[in-house]
Amino acid sequence: MNIKRDIVLRIRLAFLAILLFSLAVIYKIFYIQQINSSQWEKLANENLLQYRVVKATRGNIYSDNESLLATSIPFYRLAMDPTVPSDEVFRKGIDSLSLLLARHFKGRKEDYYKKINDARRNNKAYIIINREMINFQTQKMMSQWPIIREGKYKGGVLFEKIEKRFKPFSSLAARTIGFINENNTGVGLEKSYNNYLKGRDGEALFMRMGGGNWKPIHDESEIAAEPGVDILTTIDVNIQDVAEASLHRHLQKHNADYGCVVLMEVSTGEIKAISNLGKVAEGAYLENYNYAIAEQGLTDPGSTFKLASLIALFEDSDLRLEDSIYAERGRYKFFDRVMTDSHEGGYGWLDVQEAFEKSSNIAVSKLVVKHFGSNPQRYVDYIKGFGLAEKLGLQMQGEANPFVKTPANRSWSGVTLPWMSIGYELKLAPIHTLAFYNAIANQGKLIKPILVKEIRVADQVKEKFETEIIKEKICSDKTIEKARKMLEGVVENGTARNINNAIYKIAGKTGTAQKNKNGVYTKSYYTSFVGYFPADKPKYSCIVIIDSPKGFQQYGADVAAPVFKEIADKIYAADLDLHDKFEAVAASEQEAFPLIKAGYYDDLASLCNFFGISNHTRHDTDEEWVSAIPTNKSITWNARKIKETLVPDASGMVLRDALFLLENHGLKVRIHGTGRVVSQSLPPGARAVKGNTISIYLE
Predict the structure, then answer these.
(1) Spatial separation of the C-alpha atoms in residues 459 and 451, rounded to whole Å
(2) Which residue spans within 548-639 are E strands per DSSP?
(3) Which residue in 211, 279, 288 sits closest to 251, CA to CA?
(4) What is the largest CA-CA distance in the chain?
(5) Beta-bridge partners for 507
(6) pLDDT by residue (tens digit) across 123-161?
(7) Which of 117, 330, 81 is nearest to 209 (CA)?
């Protein structure tokens, strides 16, 4: 009996415990749903609903003729809410849609059918059909497919836009155009003008779906993104292409470490080409650093700096180009250091013009030390006055800070002045040297190089950047005249005579500086050539740098100067403004009178009459085909007799007339070249056999 009572008691206690637990659960549910519902609803919304950033479309970057250098191309990811379509729309379209998806994404129809159908049956409101990105044309095509063509609200389709940056010219000017990452780190114009290009991001409400995906909910709270504005650069894609190709070819030829080219318009400062190529593997070069502007290109300029030294002398003394200086026998000691010239045995006596043309280190240093040795600060002040000691204030971030040593510097010594005078113990980036030489070409006017001309919103100019003058005159006109004569002499008689030509004149200076590694100057060289062309009426200035060339040729004249000439030659050939006026006039006069040689009489006579060109036949004739004889700006028609059995004369005819005439004689025509017929394989007057082949050659 006691056992029975004990069992019943235990059962009752267990039942009571279960009852109390159940009541606690019921109370907790009631508490969550009724008393504390707002808190849990807020938490649920925070996890399921979230305002997220909608990225703005980034602005475009254009070349000087409005060719696209960088743009944002929309790509799409196809997603879907399969619960949206009606039963009828879904039933009629699901089979065809699955087949089209399988064909496009290279999958199986059954897999797409099952994926969409299962999601609809399980009331799943969001699925990604395929993670592969599609372009705008594909998106338009898919918009015509079953179910998808019903749109977002009836078909449940979601084309989620994702924009990618695209450079139509691939690697052309890649470092200058630059890039920007999601964390706002980057380089080039993309970074420097990010505040303009990025636009203003929008905001929209998104719902968290399965798999961690977020589905946009388009409601009245959505804030639309504002696209970025466009920038118009000064880059000329044709000149840029020429500069990059030439630089790349010579870097490979000399197995150099890196190189750069900057070419700008003399009067405006507009940079038309800027190329930077660094070695990434044997024989392979990429735009990895901006050597022309940034710290990576900051180095001893070498002999190109001699121009600044001599200009300082011309300004502070009565030194003339004809004055003589003894350049020793190739070696000269300044205090405890020996300076040498590259010419074995030295140059002996030279005048100043010859010293510059031959790039004598000893001659230039002796002149500078003789005049400025007692007051080196005065020399440094001239260098600063030339704009070589400060940043130019370029439109692109990352400009290097030039270093020009002063007597107040702790490392200044007795040998600093002579070595500085020939381009050592100071640091310049190529852009600083180019700006200085450009000032000489520009009659002493130092201007800031320009990379961006305009900032635009659609076709409306929001901001325009004009040529900015840093210094109206860096030296006197008399000194400018001397400097330009010296620079022309370098190409005509001096170290760069290998690039001299009879068509147009180049003015410039070679540079070959020993590389300083760990405080020791080595037999590795920094070669350069900087100058302008045409020398008599400068339109373009340019600097070429090739660092650490290998092999037999290691001097600026042999390595960098040929790159300058290649670029200058191609620009000169393409730019008619650089040619003499009489050539242009002669060409225009020749082009004013049409080129007429032979053809169908009625067509040619009608054209001449329409344009008011006097024309007449030599004899009365009914011939349909004629040849033209231009005489005193008039045309005389000479009959060209055509016989059915003989091969006709097609010379001078345009392709249309030649084909008509020859094929009407039963001949099969093979065409070589373009233009007008200059010769034919079957001679005129030969027997015309139907089916025979005749080749015509056009120029």
Answers:
(1) 19
(2) 598-600, 615-617, 625-631, 634-639
(3) 279
(4) 151
(5) 532
(6) 888 888 888 888 888 989 999 999 999 988 898 888 888
(7) 81
Let me know if domain 52-233 sits in CATH 3.90.1310.10: yes
Domain edges within the chain: 2-35, 52-233, 239-578, 591-698
Q: What is the pTM of this model?
A: 0.72
HSE-up of residue 603 (Cα within 13 Å, Cβ side): 13
Task: Output the CA angle 231-63-472, nearest 5 degrees.
Answer: 80
Give per-residue pLDDT as tens, 489-538: 999 999 999 999 888 999 999 999 988 776 676 778 999 999 999 999 99
Residue 432 to residue 424: CA distance in whole angstroms:
15
In angstroms, the CA 384 to CA 622 distance is 83
pLDDT at 588: 44
Given a contact cutoff of 8 angstroms between Cβ atoms, the answer to whether 230 and 61 are in contact is yes
The distance in angstroms from the start CA to the end CA of the chain is 127
Peptide bond into 534 cis (omega under 30): yes
Residues 135 and 162: their CA atoms lie apart, in Å, by 10
Q: Please give the average per-residue pLDDT across 171-180, as a whole number.
A: 91
Look at residue 37 and tell me whether its pLDDT is greater than 70. Answer: no
The 10 Å Cβ neighbour count of residue 10 is 10
Instruction: Produce one character per residue of 183-214: b if its CB has 16 or more CB atoms within 10 Å, e if not.
Output: eeeebbbbbbbbebbbbeeeebbbeebeeeeb
pLDDT tens-digit profile of 59-75?
999 999 989 999 988 88
CATH of 239-578, one of 3.50.50.60, 3.30.230.10, 3.40.710.10, 3.40.190.150: 3.40.710.10
- pLDDT value at 581 more than 70: no
DSSP string, 42-75: HHHHHHHEEEEEEPPPPPPEE-TT--EEEEEEEE
Angle of helix 237-254 relative to helix 561-574, nearest 10 degrees, comes to 150
* DSSP notation for 112-180: HHHHHHHHHHTT---EEEEEEEE-HHHHHHHTTSTTGGGHHHHH-EEEEEEEEEE-TTTTTTHHHH-EE
Give per-residue pLDDT as tens, 4-15: 777 777 777 777
Q: Going by DSSP bridges, is the β-strand pair 615-617/634-639 parallel, antiparallel, or unpaired?
A: parallel
Distance, C-alpha 271 to centroid of its chain: 11
CA–CA gap between residue 322 and residue 98 (Å, rounded): 88
Distance CA 597, CA 592 (A): 16
φ and ψ at residue 263, rounded to 5 degrees: -125, 130
Is 266:438 a contact under the CB 8 Å cutoff?
A: yes
